[in-house]
């Protein structure tokens, strides 16, 4: 008979030594949330309403990009403030673009290196093979992304903004398919002979005047026309640069009584007074810096401080509500004054407000703001960056251990700023003993939640190094960092790498805090969970027992963490078929949670679900059903209909009905669970593969083989892509597909799959594991079905002996 997918514990060891294991019985490979989409959405920002001229440049750019037969790379070159980025935006919004391209993707090198940005943009939509994620080079990973990019047909524009040198864009990181057209923006001349270069000059005099009049109102337009020669002189003085001209127009709007002649005089005086230090510190023309200074001098109240604060954030869109407001609150600035300051900066075009929610700052203006803050001294910068660090840490702490799509989207804009925090602001973090670790943990969770394990591992490693360099090797945060890295390895099935880290964390916690501390119990629990995942039950049990005893002694019998330990121990016993020992523990955990947390709590739903699963395993279906139904109802009421735990409950209830042969009731629940997982976690997620597998098994049980086979194949393919070829869940899928072929009498197709599954289980889990016994039994049954009795008997005997040794003589 076919082996059902294992029901495993949901391991939720929190980052940090305060983590706990909370068991929810679901079919649960490591979580890697992915987007629900077959197309990676374009990400071009809104264009400026004040764009003028450049029509011939746009035509030349379009012609150069339409180079058939190879990847076209066009470099738009020009000085800072000339409008390179805006030209790229306008091209992506043009009629020509709409007619020839299916999508556009934007990468800004002022936000970081190119490769991580490509991988991050692709991660929610492309299921990179686990083997490539673990051991492939960054170049290999990026190449795979370009080869598998969605949409897979049609021309795609890739914009790489602010390229400073050819080293920023190695050839290995660029797409090779001719359907990709690559546009670069750069200040560098002759970046590469392989690139077609569009040298973007300044605006013409007529275009400059047009830009001025387009920004101002009718009254100011009339004044410009009346002082046209002075207006032309201002344009010439500013080098006909769009950024500077926009500042002038907004400046004139802000001071409506100022004549153009007086502005020109102020500009000239300001230019003459520029210090050499300022000219060296800001990569802009003298006239542009002078225009910046005039606008800066116009600022009142908190406006200059707000500008300097915004300049300390990363060179990316800054989410106001999530990051700026909390920073302002921590600095004690008055809200109305801040609102007025923001309005003043916006009116003078010193900042741009994007979608009414985010602040965008031109690269030159960011340089200018940072220069101004440096003039205030290190103490002033420390105060500003301390506020930014405080708000960033707060956001990091909201990222859950296993984020779903909604969590990823909620914090996406904050990530560049959290990355900058971990790189440049560690010395500014308030209460570093409590908060330093979070500068890395939030980003690591963000990346691991999208299957970007290499990036997550880098931040876990950096966290460990940062803590060790600041606090030494003997510090609780070192243990927490070891635990985090171990958890990351465990979630990838890298058990042999996880174990020494868990052991080191446990030893360190004991040395630092003594044997009698709640964090010691947590570390014992985490190590036990690792052993349980490997089927090392005799090693897991004493650790679970020790953790339970320790929690009771330290926290008392009536504590939620005691209930968690009871649940974990019960699940271990259930896995071994020790049902009489498991049941009272599950009941005690449920009663404890109800008394401590009340009847209406998600943890109560978890305990109901676990107890129901135990009854199902024993064939006590009439006792299991009301518990599953109660858990499902409770989760829907507490968490809403759209939550992964609701999908779990639907799946478990469907499994119960399937066990009872109530197939018409099981199928719609499996389908609903599958749909919910796809919507919440994306098409490319291990739990989606699990749901496909469960639905396939239902169809197989009904003899609906033509419907079952494509689902088993899809589940197997998905697991291989997500988890790599060498993972226990891949072996399970191979086993299930083999069982289907076996049921159909397709013995020659079943045998190599059974053999491959057996070999994989032995290599990954060792010879002494229940799944190895199952594989031996299944292979023996196949041989028996073929009349190959002499081959079947030793396998049956080996499976029986193994199960007796692992599970005891009294296991079903």
From TrEMBL:
UniProt superkingdom: Bacteria
Keyword NAD: no
GO molecular function term, any single one: ADP binding
Keywords: Repeat, TPR repeat
Keyword match Electron transport: no
InterPro entries per the UniProt record, alphabetical: Apaf_helical, NB-ARC, P-loop_NTPase, TPR-like_helical_dom_sf, TPR_rpt
Family matches, as SMART domains: TPR
Start and end residues of each NB-ARC domain: 55-216
TPR repeat feature ranges: 479-512, 521-554, 563-596, 605-638, 647-680, 689-722, 731-764, 773-806
TM ranges: none
Name of this protein: Tetratricopeptide repeat protein
Organism: Microcystis aeruginosa Ma_QC_B_20070730_S2
């Amino acid at each position: 008979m076919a082996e059902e997918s294992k029901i495993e514990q949901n391991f939720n060891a929190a980052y940090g030594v305060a983590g706990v294991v909370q068991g929810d019985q679901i079919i649960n490979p490591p979580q890697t949330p992915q987007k629900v989409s077959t197309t990676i959405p374009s990400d071009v920002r809104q264009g400026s309403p004040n764009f003028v001229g450049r029509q011939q440049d746009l035509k030349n750019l379009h012609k150069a990009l339409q180079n058939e037969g190879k990847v076209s790379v066009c470099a738009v070159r020009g000085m800072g403030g000339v409008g390179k980025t805006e030209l790229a935006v306008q091209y992506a919004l043009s009629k020509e673009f709409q007619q020839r391209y299916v999508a556009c993707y934007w990468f800004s090198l002022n936000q970081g290196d190119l490769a991580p940005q490509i991988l991050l943009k692709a991660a929610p939509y492309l299921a990179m093979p686990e083997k490539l994620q673990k051991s492939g080079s960054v170049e290999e990973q990026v190449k795979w992304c370009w080869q598998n990019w969605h949409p897979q047909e049609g021309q795609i524009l890739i914009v790489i903004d602010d390229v400073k040198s050819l080293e920023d864009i190695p050839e290995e990181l660029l797409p090779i398919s001719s359907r990709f057209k690559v546009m670069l923006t750069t200040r560098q001349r002759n970046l590469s002979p392989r690139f077609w270069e569009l040298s973007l000059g300044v605006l013409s005099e007529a275009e400059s005047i047009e830009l001025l009049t387009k920004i101002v109102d009718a009254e100011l337009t009339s004044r410009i026309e009346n002082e046209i020669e002075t207006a032309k002189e201002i344009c010439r003085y500013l080098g006909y640069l769009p950024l500077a001209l926009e500042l002038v127009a907004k400046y004139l709007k802000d001071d409506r009584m100022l004549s153009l002649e007086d502005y020109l005089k102020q500009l000239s005086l300001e230019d003459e007074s520029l210090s050499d230090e300022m000219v060296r510190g800001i990569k802009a023309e003298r006239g542009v810096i002078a225009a910046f200074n005039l606008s800066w001098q116009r600022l009142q109240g908190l406006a200059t401080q707000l500008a300097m604060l915004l300049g300390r954030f990363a060179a990316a869109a800054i989410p106001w509500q999530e990051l700026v407001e909390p920073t302002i609150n921590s600095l004690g600035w008055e809200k109305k004054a801040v609102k007025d300051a923001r309005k003043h900066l916006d009116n003078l075009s010193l900042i741009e407000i994007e979608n009414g929610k985010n602040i965008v700052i031109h690269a030159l203006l960011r340089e200018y703001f940072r220069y101004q803050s440096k003039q205030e001294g290190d103490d002033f910068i420390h105060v500003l960056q301390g506020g930014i660090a405080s708000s960033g840490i707060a956001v990091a702490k909201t990222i859950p251990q296993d984020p779903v799509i909604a969590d990823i989207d909620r914090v996406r804009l904050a990530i560049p700023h959290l990355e900058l925090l971990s790189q440049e602001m560690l010395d500014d973090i308030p209460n570093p003993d409590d908060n330093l670790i979070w500068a890395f943990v939030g980003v690591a969770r963000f990346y691991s939640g999208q299957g970007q394990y290499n990036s997550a591992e880098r931040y876990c490693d950096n966290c460990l190094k940062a803590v060790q360099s600041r606090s030494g090797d003997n510090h609780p945060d070192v243990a927490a960092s070891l635990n985090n890295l171990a958890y990351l390895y465990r979630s990838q099935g890298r058990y042999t790498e996880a174990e020494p880290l868990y052991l080191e964390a446990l030893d360190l916690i004991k040395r630092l805090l003594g044997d009698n501390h709640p964090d010691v119990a947590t570390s014992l629990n985490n190590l036990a969970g690792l052993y349980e995942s490997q089927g090392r039950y005799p090693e897991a049990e004493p650790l679970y027992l020790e953790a339970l005893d320790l929690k009771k002694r330290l926290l008392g019998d009536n504590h939620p963490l005691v209930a968690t330990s009871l649940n974990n121990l019960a699940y271990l016993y259930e896995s071994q078929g020790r049902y009489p020992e498991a049941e009272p523990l599950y009941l005690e955990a449920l009663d404890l949670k109800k008394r401590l947390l009340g009847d209406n709590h998600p943890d109560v739903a978890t305990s109901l679900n676990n107890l129901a699963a135990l009854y199902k395993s024993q064939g006590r279906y009439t006792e299991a059903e009301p518990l599953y139904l109660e858990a499902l109802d409770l989760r829907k009421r507490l968490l809403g209909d759209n939550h992964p735990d609701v999908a779990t409950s639907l799946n478990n209830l469907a499994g119960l009905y399937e066990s009872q042969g109530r197939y018409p009731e099981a199928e719609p629940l499996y389908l609903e669970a599958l749909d919910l997982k796809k919507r919440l976690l994306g098409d490319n997620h291990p739990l989606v593969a699990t749901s496909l597998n469960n639905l396939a098994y239902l169809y197989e049980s009904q003899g609906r083989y033509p419907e079952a086979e494509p689902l088993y194949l899809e589940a197997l393919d998905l697991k291989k892509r997500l988890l790599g070829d060498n993972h226990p869940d891949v072996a399970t899928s191979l086993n299930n597909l083999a069982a289907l072929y076996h049921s159909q009498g397709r013995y020659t197709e079943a045998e190599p799959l059974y053999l491959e599954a057996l070999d994989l289980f032995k290599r990954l889990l060792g010879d002494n594991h229940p799944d190895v016994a199952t594989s031996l039994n299944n292979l023996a049954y196949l041989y028996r079905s073929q009349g190959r009795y002499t081959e079947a008997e030793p396998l049956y005997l080996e499976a029986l002996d193994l199960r007796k040794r692992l599970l005891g003589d009294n296991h079903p």
